[in-house]
Amino acid sequence: MVKKINIFFSLIILFVCFLIYSSERIYQDSDMDNMYLDIGNLLEIEFIKDGELYLKNNNNVIKKIDIELADLDTEKKNGLKYRSFLKENRGMLFLLKDQEEYKQIDMKDMRISLDIVYINQFNTVVFVNKYVNPMMKDIEYRNFSSTIKYVLEINAGMANKWGIKEGVTKIIWMG
């Protein structure tokens, strides 16, 4: 008799646990979008130095920065997203496969303002999009007469501070 009572109570406890688990699961499924947003807001990705980039005006080095490369599709898609800060002497260099790839870069889920520097196949800066605000889905795009081979993202204001000039500044990077 005692054995039957123990089994009965065990079944009741299992049933109650199942009900609790099921109700939590239903809540999570209905609130899945918010759950992922909360995780994204908690995520902080660390800078990984992949090389150094030299910015030059008329063969004079104006700035040397540490760069993180974005050459895989997932790295390009994420870029500097989920980062709360970027040290002044750092940036992310996107290595583009084709001419249209630069148009896929956006500021969705970004936390910091950036200067976005477009660099052609001759390693020359052709356009600087300055003070691009975070969380913007649409970025000002241009159709360039030369092929865009690289995009450099740096903290907003650094292009002016370092003296980056369209048509003048060239880059050399070592990875």
From TrEMBL:
Name the species this protein comes from.
Answer: Blattabacterium cuenoti STAT
By its UniProt entry, which Pfam families does this protein fall under?
A: DUF192
Membrane-spanning residues: none
InterPro entries associated with the record: DUF192, Saro_0823-like_sf
Protein name per its UniProtKB record: Secreted protein containing DUF192
